[in-house]
Amino acid sequence: MRRALLASLAVMTVATALPAVAQAQVPGQTPEQRGRPTQDAQPADRSRAPRIAPLRRQPNAGPCPYVKILYDAARFVEIAGDGRPAASNVGYTGEIEGLSAGCAYQSDEPITVHVDLLFNLGRGPQAQGDTRTYRYWIAVTERNRAVLAKEYFDLPVNFEGADRTSVTEERVIVIPRAGIETSGANFEVLVGFDVTPDMAEFNRSGSRFRVTAGQNPAPAATPPAQ
Prior knowledge:
Largest sheet: 6 strands, mixed
Number of helices: 1
Order of helices and strands: EEEEEEEEEEH
Shape: elongated
Number of strands: 10
Strand content: 35-45%
Helix content: under 10%
Distance between the termini: 66 Å
Radius of gyration: 23 Å
Structural class: mainly beta
């Protein structure tokens, strides 16, 4: 699915073609990992003619916004029953397993950020039914400051009898700029599940279920007699 999220900084109409997408800033990446071409990069087979003409690439007017998953909302874990955080009380679960992003802007154009998301979803012992509609959000912030725009999205999932499945989503975020001097480094794009305060606290604690926790270990096997 591809939809657009417009940060409500100003009302703008974009009618120009966008340049080639550059790699966005992702935590832990070096400039080389962000797709910056190197001089010694050579085609694998010079004798084979390219099937299509190479695209003309232009550098962005500035760096891309920082894109990341909010830790407190990276997982969705339903605790049913008596509310005790035990594996037997788990309903539906989810985790934003992967994120990749790229952006493009030139001159005084708005910043267009393309985001690909990978969700891993599951059904625990307390899950009822094969279908569940999860909810997640994408927010644009002035970096380390106020939230400028936030939009929620529904993620309907059909497990089809399985206890886990994966779903990918594609989103396009358009961030207007006040002027040509406004860099993408001024913005941050955050992603997360729509979670309850209890779910957020569970995520902050770093808790993970281990089904065998608290059980006596199996006795060691007795070696055969010689």
